[in-house]
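Loading example: each entry is read as three labelled lines plus one structure line.
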Amino acid sequence: MDSGDTSKYFQSTCKRLAESFFNTSCEALAKNLLGKVLARRLNDGCIIKGRIVETESYLGGEDAASQSYGNKVTPRNEPMFMSPGTAYVYFTYGMYHCFNISSQGEGAAVLLRALEPLENLERMTELRKRYRKSPKTTLKTKDLCNGPAKLCISLAIDIETCNRQNLISWDGMWLEDDGQDDLCKTIVAAPRIGINCEKKWQNKLLRFYIHDNPYVSKIEKAKMEFMQLP
DNA sequence: GTAGTGATTGCCT
DNA sequence: GGCAATCACTACG
């Protein structure tokens, strides 16, 4: 679809999230993103969608686990300091990508950790299988996007095309409210995964996920803290 | 089902 | 030079 069709599409069928949604504190954005829909339009026009079920907050500044700790700006983490709603995609472990969305606050961003696949699951499966050694291994729906690097592969999120893009205006990726997130009001707060820093920050409950949702990457066995959203 | 481990490279000190 | 906001594979129960 051309750009005229794209804007018509947004007006008629989507409730695309606007600047005001992202211009809030990092923790609030991480919680508010739960239940919202992430949409990605590929070069061939195929639109892939998934519902966000798990996020993590990286506060910047004082947060020892954040890449922007100490308000340190580098060429890599610069999108964390850009306007709320900016995509920050980075490369990690020599082979994977992680996808973040900047929020209000200097160097603050939300990491997307897991999605419930909603549309074009065949395409997600195809993209994921290309990354594997044995393409014959079967992929269950729940394994398509249950991890920060997996969802990047499934939605073809990479640095070249997605980093620094504005999710409020770019037509390659955006967020929607489909009105179905009232089913997701009970959320769990837990420590963030895969970080290694001073314990004070390692233990903070800055990871959020939808309670009892099968698409979450990792379920806490203990230390659960529930919250009800209004 | 879970535990242990190798893969692989750009970024930052 | 060290290491990373991870994943897939293997082995084992």
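DSSP finds seven helices and nine strands in chain A.
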